[in-house]
Amino acid sequence: MNPEFLTITNLIVAVTCLISYQLMQNRNGKSQLIFHPVTIKEHNQWYRFLTSGFIHADWWHLGVNMFVLWSFGNAVEKYLYPAYLGEFSTLKYMALYFGGIIVSSIPSYFRYQNAPHYGALGASGGVSAVVFAVILFEPWQNLYLYGIIAIPQILAGVAYLYYSWYMDKRGTDNIGHMAHFTGAVWGFFFTILMNVELLPRFIQKVLEGPSWL
Q1: Taking the complete model, does pTM exceed 0.85, yes or no?
Q2: What is the 3-state secondary structure (H, E, C) of 7-24?
Q3: What pLDDT, on the 0 to 100 scale, is given for residue 3?
């Protein structure tokens, strides 16, 4: 097997897809892993903060999360973190991703710890963390919406944060927008904490603007 394929990112994608597939139609199995604040509080099942990131509601939910993780995660793991964070970059990358899953659920835990109806699942918090780590390194690099429309990452990131905050306040759907917001913030500031020199570098790059101006 090609060593380039043997990355932590690809392993996470494979394991998440396998577990999500196995439990997609298994409600009992899914209920053992889902993030359910009331159960966590009453039975001290803190593992749910992490295991909820390995299950997804449907194929669309799984596919979007894993495609984005695969696209951004390999760049962070193989190039950006080793270049800028030095030793133990793989462990730091794992802390970035899994920390994003855990930390992103904290606001929902306190908000819904007495709400039996609430449950959440998916890797969006960890995925958001990885994406915002990339934005920290290369704020003006384009990402492509629908694979066609080029948008500078920093502008897309700001829009993503505002949208997540706004939709969370509205509370009109069943999407964990606050988890998206919190995971993104975690990814940005966790990476800075690993190397504080990245903050002035980021500010300088933002002020310089995109290369095509």
Answers
A1: yes
A2: CHHHHHHHHHHHHHHHHC
A3: 61
Q: What is the CATH classification number for the domain harbouring 134?
A: 1.20.1540.10
Q: Which two tokens stand for residue 110?
A: 């306190």
Written as six digits, the tokens of 65 are 């999360």
Nearest to 173 by CA among 36, 45, 23, 57: 57
The amino acid occupying position 150 is A
Cα separation values, 180 from 21, 70, 89, 102, 170, Å? 23, 17, 24, 12, 15
Strand partners, 120: 35
Burial of 133 (0-12, 13-18, 19+ CB in 10 A): buried
The domain in which residue 7 lies consists of: 3-208
Number of domains forming the structure of the chain = 1
Mean pLDDT of 12-31: 95
- Cβ-contact 92, 81 below 8 angstroms: yes
